[in-house]
Amino acid sequence: MLAIMRYLCFLVSLLMWLAIPSAAQTATPCGVELDSLSVESALPGEKFQLRGSWGLNDGKKLPVINLNGQNELEVIEWSEAVLTVRVPEGLRPGKYKVGVYCHAPSLGSSFSSGFKTFEVKGLPLKPAIPIP
Fold first, then answer.
1. Residue 79: alpha-carbon gap to chain centroid
2. What are the backbone dihedrals phi and psi of residue 81, each rounded to the nearest 5 degrees, phi first?
3. The whole model's pTM is what?
4. Which of 2.60.40.10, 2.60.120.10, 2.40.370.10, 3.30.980.10 would CATH assign to domain 27-120?
5. Among 84, 80, 82, 81, CA closest to 42
6. Model confidence over 57-102: pLDDT tens digits?
7. Alpha helix locations (H) across the chain?
């Protein structure tokens, strides 16, 4: 009987934990969390915003755009809720993942904000000029 009661308490606790997410359940130990992007695509050199929870720019957080390797995003402006960044020049068109890495030496690990898909667009091709 006691085992059944413990099991039921465990199930109720688990269901409550799943139904009511708290900041402690969703935030990373570094306190970075990506909620949304201001745009879903841009050309290299254009600016966009990452919206979420960033905290102070303490040098341990690195905004990135990843596809078969990591590329740093140039930070134009940093606030606790919005990062304004620039798409690096020279990136090929394609679908990338955008997010923020956070290094937490006291925890002995690195974490991320989570990632969102972002498309780097290419410049339209110029029409061929016919040769007379």
1. 15
2. -115, -20
3. 0.69
4. 2.60.40.10
5. 84
6. 888 899 999 998 889 999 999 999 999 999 999 999 999 999 999 8
7. 2-19, 23-26
